[in-house]
Amino acid sequence: MNHNHYCIIMAGGIGSRFWPMSRQSRPKQFIDILGIGKTFLQMTFERYAQIVPAENILIVTAERYRDLVKEQLPSMPDENILLEPYKRNTAPCVAYATYKLYKKNPKATVIVAPADHLILGDAQFNDTMRAALKAAEQSDRLYTIGIEPTRPETNYGYIQINKAFSEKVGTHSSFQVKTFTEKPNAELAKVFLETGEFFWNSGMFIWKLQSIKDELERCLPEVTTLFHGGEDFYYTNGEAAFIRRVYEDCPAISIDYGVMEKTQKAWVFLSDFGWTDLGTWESVYEQVPKDDAANVVSAEVRMVDEVEGSVVLETNPGKLVVARGFEKMMVVDMPDVLLVCRRDDKTIKDIVTDLTVKDKIDRYL
Amino acid sequence: MNHNHYCIIMAGGIGSRFWPMSRQSRPKQFIDILGIGKTFLQMTFERYAQIVPAENILIVTAERYRDLVKEQLPSMPDENILLEPYKRNTAPCVAYATYKLYKKNPKATVIVAPADHLILGDAQFNDTMRAALKAAEQSDRLYTIGIEPTRPETNYGYIQINKAFSEKVGTHSSFQVKTFTEKPNAELAKVFLETGEFFWNSGMFIWKLQSIKDELERCLPEVTTLFHGGEDFYYTNGEAAFIRRVYEDCPAISIDYGVMEKTQKAWVFLSDFGWTDLGTWESVYEQVPKDDAANVVSAEVRMVDEVEGSVVLETNPGKLVVARGFEKMMVVDMPDVLLVCRRDDKTIKDIVTDLTVKDKIDRYL
């Protein structure tokens, strides 16, 4: 493996779509939502440890999740765990990791990836990422990974390619980005699929550290000026205090909106490995193995009868679940919260908002 | 109140129809299933304390429920709590209470009543029971209370009256019993209702102690011979050991089958106070107050949306229940068991049987 290759895993999200299983105190990336014995963070780490040296993997997360990272990745050195004191979206997260790593290795080429996606097809994925690292090293382009769509999905953002500017890297095609689009409606998603010009935006990036540093400074000077002078503090006892000052003043802005949609250097690297951001319970339901009645039942002790197409997740060890006579429901039982709803309920995020804003009850978040 | 009037409350059942809320360790009579702040046992005690002196109320229960009785009825003297070492159905229960009380007061007239029924209309009930006590005192009849049926109910047993032998006691009618019948099917229940000769069998009895003693000895000598010689032990330290010997050899037989269906002295005292044995979740649902969406939701903290005609009982203090998008369901959440089923599920008893017989898991019973 190339010692100039790095991976920055963004693990600071507090996603509420998997509430009550994911909580602010233990969000999705730190839980084993698929019941496979590994959390998303652990799976993501292991995935990138096949592509870059393990000691070159950095985790950016919120201060409050430090112990969860240490617990789930005990071999991770402290200096590789970057702690954000405030939530400022992804641009400051990328900037922090970029400036810090730049002090150590300005020749680095990095993958930036979310901690909570599901990838199926390891070999294909590894092959794609290695090719993308190689392509990024040989240019100053900012690559994103575009996934060939298999259905008119309305839950993903799309990337439109510019067919006029393309490059082959081995068997892989890459194109200049024409536009990034928001989640389309069903009609538009169908058009996207038919044109062949639109790819799912996976939210994974590959670039030289120098390339992203230059573009951050060009596109987001209001963020990058805050980081100036930081090279005296990174990898020292003063780092946390410096970062606290920076983040306090830092605007919250995404790397997509702040850089990718503005830069002329956005390219997309195409692939068709199995990918999902598992953004809804429905998408988890689709991915996990189901029993003969199309159920996903995680209860240790259970009596399930005349139940179909349902998800039953029991997180209290040894608790008996008796489920009878329903279909397409979701039952999630935690020590302090019980959720019973339709499997395709799209408003779970709103429950969390209601709890926060209307009821002002924060102990269940 | 007449100091020769007594009440024997039968509180030894381990009914499984309200599982998981009722358990073998705390059956229905010891829980507040209606959420009114009192258990069935407490309600039953208070009801009869209006009719007989409180110190004349006896509770017959299983040894393992002694502490529950003491906790729920702290003023009850120990000698009034009759503990059964084994489950032997109601005939031995009645025999034990009869022989014990006979030592103290052979002139007693007693009401024998289950601990777990719901009575609505206190005044009417009290009036009926007082009249029945009076009637029993003046004869050697074994009275049962028959409830005027309001619908062709298939969950109750019926009593057919013999119109040729009747007696008025104040405003109350009583008749000789022609037959006791099992739970009828829907068609038969309709016929029962139309004839006007059939009444619901409430399972409450009124008789002189001497009358039931005589009939027990006539109908069930295999039970009563075991109790001979007991008068040396009742109200002494030797009572428990004596009763243990008796119960060990005692056949399990119900007072209905063992005495009432055999005796020539069975009479029925008619009434139409509100009565239900609350034998199913559905009957509880019918009795308790419901919200605008016809739901019964007992969770302390809850977010209920687009839920109709459902029962949601959360017994874990402070646990948040989020219920959305279902109807006519039942959700019962206990620390160790979660039940989600149709509200009219008639097979909950079978779950308990399955757990016992098939799965041999006794920790959830």
Structure overview:
The structure is a homodimer of 365-residue chains. With 365 residues, chain A is of the alpha/beta class. In chain A, 30% of the residues lie in helices and 29% in strands. Chain A has helices spanning 40-48, 66-72, 90-104, 122-137, 186-195, 209-219, 221-227, 239-249, 255-260, 281-287, 348-358, and strands at residues 5-10, 57-62, 81-84, 109-114, 118-120, 142-147, 158-169, 172-181, 198-208, 266-271, 274-276, 296-297, 301-308, 311-314, 320-327, 329-333, 337-342. Chain A has a five-stranded mixed beta barrel with strand order 6-9-7-8-10. Chains A and B meet through strand 15, strand 16, strand 17 and helix 11 of A and strand 15, strand 16, strand 17 and helix 11 of B.
Q: TL;DR of this structure?
A:
The structure is a homodimer of 365-residue chains. Chain A has eleven helices and 17 strands.
Task: Kindly list the characteristics that best describe this protein.
homodimer, 365 residues, alpha/beta, 5-stranded mixed β-barrel, 4-stranded mixed sheet, 11 helices, 30% helix, globular
